[in-house]
Write a structure and sequence with these properties.
The chain is mainly alpha-helical. The chain has helices spanning 19-30, 32-40, 42-48, 59-67, 73-85.
Length: 88
């Protein structure tokens, strides 16, 4: 189950907003197929985009998503949140 605490806004830097990451997670919530691709082949999911629309992510955001191995969407969201907030 996805809980609201995994989607709390975090600030990456003063030059980055969360729109790209929000779109990635929104697509994963509404599409089981996209979610499975994101979890199992994140580079492919980010490259293909969703419904023909690319994700506008920074190189840091792309590298982060690609580097994470998560069991579920909430697990991915938690790991992204921890990494962006500097938690270990």
């Amino acid at each position: 189950m996805i809980t609201l605490d995994v989607f709390l806004p975090v600030q990456i830097s003063t030059h980055t907003n969360m729109n790209g990451l929000n779109r990635v997670f929104s697509a994963a919530v509404v599409s089981r197929t996209f979610c499975e691709t994101l979890l199992n082949a994140p580079e492919q999911a980010l490259t293909e985009g969703y419904l023909g629309q690319p994700f506008l992510l920074t190189e840091q955001e792309k590298a982060l998503i690609i580097s994470i191995r998560a069991e579920s969407l909430p697990d991915l969201a938690r790991q992204v949140r921890r990494a962006l907030s500097g938690e270990l």
